[in-house]
Amino acid sequence: MQRSAESRRCYACGSPRLLRHKELYKLSLAHIDCDAFYAAVEKRDNPELLDKPLIIGGGTRGVVSTACYLARIHGVRSAMPMFKALEACPQAVVIPPNMEKYSKVGREVRQLMRELTPAVEPLSIDEAFLDLSGTENLHKAPASFVLAKFVQRIEKEIGITISVGLSYCKFLAKIASDLNKPRGFAVIGEEEALTFLRDKPVSIIWGVGKALTAKLNSDGIRTIEQLQSTEENVLMKSYGVMGQRLYRLSRGQDTRRVEPEHEMKSISAETTFNHDLSSSDDLVPVLRALSEKVSHRLKNGEIAGHTVVLKLKTQDFKSRTRNRQLSSPTQLADRIFHTGLSLLEKELDGTKFRLLGIGVSDLSGNERADPPDLVDIEATRRAKAENAMDFLRNKFGQKAVETGYTFGKSGLGRPQTPSEHVKREEKD
């Protein structure tokens, strides 16, 4: 920051990275987004990767989870099939995702966010909205100064970089954080909102996906300026409730508040196979390993799920989702696995699958999870055995004990494809 408009460097630190804006001292709603998060964490932990294009993902049938900016220069993008990513950047280093490590770093970043303000609304593992209104007395500085120091603190203490978008509403704060990545700090003020949005494509609007973009384009609407010149009732007549959102957001009108608490909907784990699988011998060990991953997350989070959900994707990309509600919430890998197994067995008709996933939904606290089963004594014994395994794993590592389902099954019981990941979904 600087005092003189003519100055080319910050008067305090001498940095040439200056930010001038007439609303800089009054704006307080920010969107913070970690830059190429998974790749940044891996480069932090392995300096040999710093100058190399890096892709997190992999497997011939997998997809790109994220790519560093060097890889993006070559055209690599998130969710791109791995074979296309390697065609675009054959020299890239490919690393499978380590969700436990990324989750740990994400929690560290979030904890530092909460030291700035209690109004933190996480959107994912690596991004969140922050509302710093009313914190000037606490920090003895406006939000923009606090965020600039926060950027430096993340780089120094966590070892990764972030980008910040500062505005008066969520919609524009999120757009701003994407403007100057990586290590970006962009501001969009209220006075300039209409002008800033005018020449942007309609696809930049929150909630406008590919289908609606195609519909708008077919109706001759391609830019936000065209929405700004259309009456609200006309848009609502053509696009229903979404028409009202188009009208308001195209004018920078967004009254959504930062909501600190989000209730999770589900926790799941899935993996995409390098080769399509159809047999029980191949699929069951994977199901067991994924059940253990989900169980591990549930136990760490002190939560439980009331419904087990099985997910399959066939070789022709058709999805199958099956679910079963339990008599009581669970966080045990054994219950998740056996429930998922009973659902999976009904699908084993020779169909080849490219993806398998298991998860739980209807989440709650773990206070009433997994009561003793007075009918199925064997299930109670397995639960005790699992608790003993957890003790050993916590003491000696996750691979200290394995079940017969996963041990020695040609690696299938330990999914290693980089597309395998744990999902933690949250309510909007």
Automatic annotation (TrEMBL):
<dbReference type="GO" id="GO:0042276">
    <property type="term" value="P:error-prone translesion synthesis"/>
</dbReference>
<keyword id="KW-0515">Mutator protein</keyword>
<dbReference type="Pfam" id="PF11799">
    <property type="entry name" value="IMS_C"/>
</dbReference>
<keyword id="KW-0479">Metal-binding</keyword>
<feature type="binding site">
    <location>
        <position position="126"/>
    </location>
    <ligand>
        <name>Mg(2+)</name>
    </ligand>
</feature>
<dbReference type="Pfam" id="PF00817">
    <property type="entry name" value="IMS"/>
</dbReference>
<keyword id="KW-0234">DNA repair</keyword>
<dbReference type="InterPro" id="IPR036775">
    <property type="entry name" value="DNA_pol_Y-fam_lit_finger_sf"/>
</dbReference>
<dbReference type="GO" id="GO:0003887">
    <property type="term" value="F:DNA-directed DNA polymerase activity"/>
</dbReference>
<feature type="site" description="Substrate discrimination">
    <location>
        <position position="38"/>
    </location>
</feature>
<dbReference type="InterPro" id="IPR022880">
    <property type="entry name" value="DNApol_IV"/>
</dbReference>
<keyword id="KW-0963">Cytoplasm</keyword>
<keyword id="KW-0460">Magnesium</keyword>
<feature type="region of interest" description="Disordered">
    <location>
        <begin position="405"/>
        <end position="428"/>
    </location>
</feature>
<dbReference type="InterPro" id="IPR001126">
    <property type="entry name" value="UmuC"/>
</dbReference>
<feature type="active site">
    <location>
        <position position="127"/>
    </location>
</feature>
<dbReference type="GO" id="GO:0006281">
    <property type="term" value="P:DNA repair"/>
</dbReference>
<keyword id="KW-0238">DNA-binding</keyword>
<dbReference type="GO" id="GO:0009432">
    <property type="term" value="P:SOS response"/>
</dbReference>
<dbReference type="InterPro" id="IPR043502">
    <property type="entry name" value="DNA/RNA_pol_sf"/>
</dbReference>
<keyword id="KW-0227">DNA damage</keyword>
<feature type="binding site">
    <location>
        <position position="33"/>
    </location>
    <ligand>
        <name>Mg(2+)</name>
    </ligand>
</feature>
<keyword id="KW-0808">Transferase</keyword>
<keyword id="KW-0235">DNA replication</keyword>
<dbReference type="GO" id="GO:0003684">
    <property type="term" value="F:damaged DNA binding"/>
</dbReference>
<dbReference type="Pfam" id="PF21999">
    <property type="entry name" value="IMS_HHH_1"/>
</dbReference>
<comment type="function">
    <text>Poorly processive, error-prone DNA polymerase involved in untargeted mutagenesis. Copies undamaged DNA at stalled replication forks, which arise in vivo from mismatched or misaligned primer ends. These misaligned primers can be extended by PolIV. Exhibits no 3'-5' exonuclease (proofreading) activity. May be involved in translesional synthesis, in conjunction with the beta clamp from PolIII.</text>
</comment>
<dbReference type="InterPro" id="IPR053848">
    <property type="entry name" value="IMS_HHH_1"/>
</dbReference>
<comment type="similarity">
    <text>Belongs to the DNA polymerase type-Y family.</text>
</comment>
<keyword id="KW-0548">Nucleotidyltransferase</keyword>
<comment type="subunit">
    <text>Monomer.</text>
</comment>
<dbReference type="GO" id="GO:0000287">
    <property type="term" value="F:magnesium ion binding"/>
</dbReference>
<feature type="domain" description="UmuC">
    <location>
        <begin position="29"/>
        <end position="209"/>
    </location>
</feature>
<dbReference type="GO" id="GO:0006261">
    <property type="term" value="P:DNA-templated DNA replication"/>
</dbReference>
<dbReference type="GO" id="GO:0005829">
    <property type="term" value="C:cytosol"/>
</dbReference>
<keyword id="KW-0239">DNA-directed DNA polymerase</keyword>
<dbReference type="InterPro" id="IPR017961">
    <property type="entry name" value="DNA_pol_Y-fam_little_finger"/>
</dbReference>
<dbReference type="InterPro" id="IPR050116">
    <property type="entry name" value="DNA_polymerase-Y"/>
</dbReference>
<protein>
    <recommendedName>
        <fullName>DNA polymerase IV</fullName>
        <ecNumber>2.7.7.7</ecNumber>
    </recommendedName>
</protein>
<dbReference type="InterPro" id="IPR043128">
    <property type="entry name" value="Rev_trsase/Diguanyl_cyclase"/>
</dbReference>
